[in-house]
Amino acid sequence: MRSWAILEEELALWRESGRAPVLWWRDDDAAEATPALDRLLALQRTHEVPLALAVVPASATPALAERLAQAPGIDLLQHGYAHTNHAPAGDKKAELGAHRPAMIVLGELGTGRMALERLFGPRALPVLVPPWNRITPGLVPALPEIGYCGLSTFGIRQRVRPVSGLVQVNTHIDLIDWKTRRFAGEEAVLAILATALAAARSTGEPLGLLSHHLAMDEPAWSFLQSLWDMVGNKPGVKIASAHDLFASGEPRA
User: Do 182 and 6 contact (CB within 8 A), yes or no?
Assistant: First the structure.
């Protein structure tokens, strides 16, 4: 189909430039061992693609830890604290917004960090994924002070003053249209991916694919498999792990 041809054409431009795009994969909202999680892990294992799983600390169970202990090659990130909305009615949802005192928010994050360390040990990377991909800018400089080395939200990194000790690696391609809570559509997702790849030829920014195993319908699962069938086997495309990206020290927030 033409939509896949557009992606092929963009990847050809990368090859002609002698460079390789860097892609990575983040899946959000893990808390429990579920059939949807099993499906996600099976897909990851089949394609041998690195996966970063964003776990909600307040809801994470020992059963999840036991299931992931059997799944090597998965990096674990911290998905806020309880994935609870504290924004007033009418505002965009946010757990890490400016609606509460910073010390309370940071204290919750620290509690969540310790919970993940107890469950998962060193597999839990000190990387924060804000629920709904939103965090008030005033909190960001404090993140390294409470032990975080990384931050991951959604969209092109903002050109702001770097925060020492903090690496920001975002996601850019969401499989779900959250207005309908259905797959956003093959043509739309591939167009976004191709556009992001074109922009990354100038910026060098790693591009993140974002999935939500608990919210995906069958077309989303089918697309995810097709994408990794194609891109995962492409010469000249680097699929990076979260561990490697956040340990690199670049790019910074």
Answer: no
Burial class, 34, CB count within 10 angstroms (exposed 0-12 / middle 13-18 / buried 19+): middle
Question: Architecture of domain 2-247 in CATH?
Answer: Alpha-Beta Barrel (3.20)
Question: Is the pTM here over 0.90, yes or no?
Answer: yes
The H or E element containing residue 27 is: strand 22-30
Q: In angstroms, rounded to a whole number, what is the distance separating the alpha carbons of residues 202 and 229?
A: 26
Domain regions of the chain by residue span: 2-247
For the stretch 121-141, pLDDT in tens is 999 999 999 999 999 999 999
β-bridge partners, 51 = 74
CA distances from 172 to 42, 43, 114 (A): 23, 21, 29
Nearest C-alpha neighbor of 176 from the set 160, 189, 161, 158: 189
Alpha carbon of 186 to those of 2, 3, 43, 52, 213: distances in Å? Answer: 11, 8, 18, 23, 17
Token output for 131: 């629920």
Amino acid at 155: G
How far apart CA 113 and CA 115 sit, in angstroms, is: 5
- Tell me: pLDDT of 98 over 50: yes
Cα–chain center distance at 4: 23
What letter represents residue 167's amino acid?
A: V
Return d(Cα 148, Cα 113) in angstroms, integer. 9
**DSSP class per residue in 74-139:** EEEEE--SS----SPTTSPP-SBSSSS-HHHHHHHHHHHHHHHHHHHGGGEEEEE--GGG-B-GGG
DSSP assignment string, 161-180 = PPPTT-EE--B-EESEETTT
